């Protein structure tokens, strides 16, 4: 039975099958009210990097809760927010951290930062963005405008969304665009190397490093949206590292708080930050969400980073990558267009959406939670997944295609 009051995401409420009711979750397992247990192969939309119910993160949360849960960051400050900012600066090499409460809002913050950066220097009319086709940056208005105009929900909101410039990951196309329009472009915004919700497409590090050079040459800022890629998903702490690129602005979310609470961090270089300094109030950054720097979320993020580093998660991710490659690369079945693997992300792309219809029910019946979309069936497991559990996830995904389509 679906609650008649609860409105679900990306779902036609009239025809949606009843969602599964979760009673508890532990490690990689979701425990349902009907007694069934499922391996969460997609880390609750890629955020539960340590799985569920981690004792050390739970302890950090309750310890902070007993002191205070939240205070406004306007005029007040506190240790968890300050310490987390310090940690993120250490990890990214960027100097300044602005917190918000979700990835989408973090992206909005990045966009406003880029636009105001130019205004603060008296450069007029730079308020458009260059973006990649097949990209996705969130569901708020500005973030949506950066996403692929064909694949997503753009067409529904045509006329409402700001219009941006879109290119394929091609340096020639980028240079052509910049030659003509750089006077209007505040920043190039991208998901570095791995484009997630636009269909799990990967592009080479050389494009990103070349894009960095072109951005510098044509006076365009570079925004790296690492909401999905940050915290190890592509095999390094941040995807930008693989291209040797330091963005002007970076957005983190999802794995930042290990799936416990909403929090994002928009980081900026000294160059960007310094443009907001001066005596005039109008030069200050004009943004301030109520829950920015929430103390519970910051404490969770600090505990998560500590575990990530102490337990050498990058090594775990490298092992996940090996297993995913063994399982998926070379896999063929009718209706399957391609398989691809990047970091801790394994993808089966089908010829049409119709081809994978029914795979969710098939996987649930075998103890695995999947949520395919567009033409992709994928896994982005919690990094604590065991080899046995991961092979089971991959096996179930492949079995569906073998069973029904051969
Ligand atoms: C790259 C990227 N940016 C931004 C977002 C939006 O994050 P949130 O859902 O926390 O608003 C997402 C979410 O999937 C994402 O993948």
Short description, anyone?
The protein has 406 residues and is an alpha/beta fold.
Question: How is the topology of this model organized?
Answer:
Elements: E1 22-26, E2 29-32, E3 37-40, H1 43-46, H2 55-67, H3 79-92, E4 96-100, H4 103-120, E5 128-132, H5 141-146, E6 165-167, H6 171-181, E7 185-190, E8 194-195, E9 201-202, H7 205-217, E10 221-225, E11 249-252, E12 264-268, H8 270-274, H9 295-310, H10 313-328, E13 336-342, E14 345-350, H11 359-365, E15 368-369, E16 376-379, H12 387-405
Parallel strand pairs: 3-15, 5-6, 5-7, 7-10, 10-11
Antiparallel strand pairs: 1-2, 2-3, 4-12, 8-9, 11-12, 13-14, 14-16
Helix pairs in contact: 2-9, 3-9, 6-7, 10-12
Pyridoxal-5'-phosphate (PLP) binds next to α4.
Structure characterization notes:
The protein has 406 residues and is of the alpha/beta class. It folds into 2 domains: 57-310, 3-Layer(aba) Sandwich (Aspartate Aminotransferase, domain 2), CATH 3.40.640.10; 312-405, Alpha-Beta Complex (Aspartate Aminotransferase, domain 1). The chain has 12 helices and 16 strands. The protein has helices at 43-46, 55-67, 79-92, 103-120, 141-146, 171-181, 205-217, 270-274, 295-310, 313-328, 359-365, 387-405; strands spanning 22-26, 29-32, 37-40, 96-100, 128-132, 165-167, 185-190, 194-195, 201-202, 221-225, 249-252, 264-268, 336-342, 345-350, 368-369, 376-379. It has a 7-stranded mixed sheet with strand order 4-12-11-10-7-5-6, with helices on both faces. The chain has a 4-stranded mixed sheet with strand order 1-2-3-15. A 3-stranded antiparallel sheet has the order 13-14-16, covered by helices on one side. Strand 2 (29-32) and strand 3 (37-40) form a beta hairpin. Helix 2 (55-67) runs antiparallel to helix 9, helix 3 (79-92) packs across helix 9 and helix 6 (171-181) packs parallel to helix 7. The longest helix is centred in the C-terminal third of the chain and has 19 residues, at 387-405. The two termini are 35 Å apart. The structure holds pyridoxal-5'-phosphate (PLP).
